[in-house]
Design brief:
Elements: E1 3-8, H1 11-21, E2 25-29, H2 33-36, H3 46-72, E3 74-79, H4 85-100, E4 108-111, H5 119-127, E5 130-131
Parallel strand pairs: 1-2, 1-3, 3-4
Antiparallel strand pairs: 4-5
């Protein structure tokens, strides 16, 4: 069988989940590291702040290109971003970009929610994926 791609938010999550799912799955982080940035205390120079935004943005672009490449070679895409508002937004954003990059032809899209990052929770979630719109 061909590849299954799983999208999660953070690189550390991707690593762990990859281990649990094995070689038929490619687990990629979307750009959760935007959410993981430590909140800064005190005042920030606007020009530095701008530089940081730009770096993150360039980074997420590269990430989405990598994701698109992987998805083009796969049969199934699992969106496993967090079950909150931001997680849903990230899923839609990823899909929109993949659509623009024409990566979604013949790819089945599923939504899974990992309630916790343990092997059993992840395998259970992968066994019961939902369709995107519920």
């Amino acid at each position: 069988g061909r590849m299954n791609v799983v999208i999660v938010e953070s690189p550390s999550k991707a690593k762990t989940i990859n281990k649990y799912l094995g070689k038929d799955f490619k687990v990629l982080a979307s750009f959760g590291h935007i959410r993981d940035l430590p909140s800064k205390d005190g005042s920030v120079k606007p020009d530095e702040d701008f530089a940081m935004d730009w770096v993150v943005d360039r980074d997420s672009n590269k990430r989405l290109t990598d994701i698109a490449k992987a998805v083009k070679e796969s049969d199934r895409l699992y969106l496993a971003t967090d079950p909150d508002r931001v997680g849903e937004d990230i899923s839609w954003h990823v899909l929109e970009v993949l659509n623009k990059k024409k990566a979604l032809k013949n790819v089945e899209i599923k939504r899974v929610v990992f309630n916790e990052i343990t092997k059993s929770a992840i395998l259970k979630a992968m066994a019961e994926p939902r369709d995107l719109d519920d």
